[in-house]
Structures are given as structure tokens and as C-alpha cells.
Amino acid sequence: MSPGSLALALAATFFGAALYVNLVEQPARLALDDEAILNEWTPSDRRGVALMAGLSLLSAALGLVAYFASQDVRWAIGALIVILAWPYTFFAMAPLNNQILTLAPRDIGAVRALVRQWGLLEYGQTAIGLAASLVYLWAL
Q1: What is the pLDDT of residue 76?
Q2: What one-character-per-residue DSSP string does 83-130 give?
Q3: CA distance linking residue 94 with residue 83, whole number of Å
């Protein structure tokens, strides 16, 4: 498999994972009671961040390899788009995420509203994955 094909596969996996969170995990999470949401959040968050960060980084690196091998700027654009997941996560999602992680037991009533807001921000990750996949597909 070429670096470009692998970059596309990883960007599509990133997109699929983000879409899964939006359509499956988030609705299931919100069906739980407030305490269960908070108990589920920490392990799910750690694993999800690691997965999404790794997929984004590997896809961007392979996109750049494809760019340097072919000199086709579309690979570099796709790499730039998919790596934008990092600053988006850090600046848009992490503050809300940290708020959820540090909720005190007496503030547990706020968890549902915060998790709903976080779910809306997750759509940004889905859009990033879709955009990168489409650009990579165009380059392929």
C-alpha cells in the first residue's frame, strides 16, 4: 500500500471513529443517569483521545510522505486538514473536557449539559475527518 493510500485509510478511520461517537456512543452515554455518565467518562475519554490523536498524527505524517514523493500539493492539504484535529481538540474541546473530568460530586447535575455541549463539539472532529478523507481521495 502506498503512503497516500494509508493516509486515506487512517483519515477515513478517524472520520468513522468520530462519527461513531456522534451517532452511537454519545446517545448511549446520554441515556445513562448523571453519576453513570461521569463514571463512564474518564476511561472512555482517555482511550478516545489516544485513538483520535494517533490516527490524526499517522494520517498527517503519511500524507506528507505522499506529498514529498509526488509533489502533489493535495496530499499536503489533506495532511494539514487532518492534523488540525490537534489544535481543535486542544483549544475547543479540552477546556470543556477538563471541566467534565474535574466535576465534584456535588456538581454532578451539571454533567449532562456539559456532555451534551461536548457532543456538539465532537461534530467538528467528524467534519475534520471527512474533509481530510475527501481531499486524500481527490489526490488518489
Answers
A1: 98
A2: HTHHHHIIIIIHHHHHHHHT--GGGGGGHHHHHHHHHHHHHHHHHHHH
A3: 16
Q: Give the pLDDT confidence score for residue 106 in this predicted structure.
A: 77
The pLDDT of residue 16 is above 90: yes
Using CA atoms, how far apart are residues 68 and 62, in angstroms rounded to an integer? 10
* For the chain, domain boundaries: 3-139
Compute, in degrees rounded to 10, the torsion defined by CA atoms 92, 96, 98, 102: 170
Query: Which of 67, 82, 69, 71 lies closest to 9 in space, CA to CA?
Result: 82
**pLDDT on residue 78:** 98
Q: 10, exposed or middle or buried, with CB in 10 Å at 0-12, 13-18, 19+?
A: buried
CA dist., res. 135 & res. 120, Å (int): 24
Q: How far is CA 32 from CA 29, 53, 119, 120, 123, in A?
A: 6, 27, 15, 18, 21
pLDDT range class, residue 39, cuts 50, 70, 90: confident
